[in-house]
Specification:
With about 180 residues, the protein is of the alpha+beta class. About 40% of the residues lie in helices and about 20% in strands. The strands form 2 sheets. The chain has a 5-stranded mixed β-sheet. The chain has a 4-stranded antiparallel β-sheet with strand order 4-5-6-7.
Length: about 180
């Protein structure tokens, strides 16, 4: 009996927390964002990134990690693409450390990719999505808009021949073991 009371209390607390998080969301913006049509790019994820000047740092790192072929292969990948300004927020020594170690760079970059369609605009409660790196990210819509972990995503993604690109405002870092 005590176990059921504790479970109920936990469930009630989680429900109230979720309701509080949802209360801060502007529903008009949520609906507008959620129904924004994806832009279409006639090419692969990598070709779309190359054609986007604000992703030049990401493109350079993808090339350095040797991930161009993997991100150009058929499928329905989702890439959460940090902009140049997002990389600018990373301290230079840390960015140099990551960029100087191909294995570490690959871990960081593949943490930005899910092997299926993942739309951060769809849920008001964060859901988990497994990345190519193997760890999970949390995607959902919060008071700041579409989010991936603590990063804000653009409302308009870009649909390519092998997936979708979402611009994000910070670099996602996995847990390093």
């Amino acid at each position: 009996m005590k176990r059921h009371v504790r479970q109920f209390a936990l469930l009630a607390g989680l429900t109230l927390a979720a309701a509080g998080a949802q209360a801060s969301v502007n529903y008009a913006n949520y609906l507008k964002c959620r129904h924004t049509q994806l832009a279409t790019f006639d090419g692969t994820l990598v070709e779309a990134a190359i054609a986007t000047p604000e992703l030049s740092t990401l493109v350079s790192l993808v090339k350095a990690a040797g991930l161009v072929d993997a991100l150009s292969a058929p499928g329905q990948l989702t890439v959460f693409a940090p902009t140049n300004s997002a990389f600018g927020k990373v301290p230079a020594p840390l960015l140099g450390l990551i960029g100087g170690d191909t294995a570490l760079l690959t871990q960081v970059l593949t943490y930005h990719v899910t092997p299926k369609t993942t739309d951060p605009r769809r849920s008001l409660i964060a859901t988990q999505a497994t990345t190519l790196q193997g760890q999970t990210v949390y995607v959902g819509y919060d008071k700041d808009g579409p989010s991936v972990n603590q990063s804000t995503a653009a409302c308009k993604g870009v649909k390519t021949s092998n997936g979708t690109v979402w611009l994000i405002d910070s670099v996602l870092l996995p847990q390093f073991k």
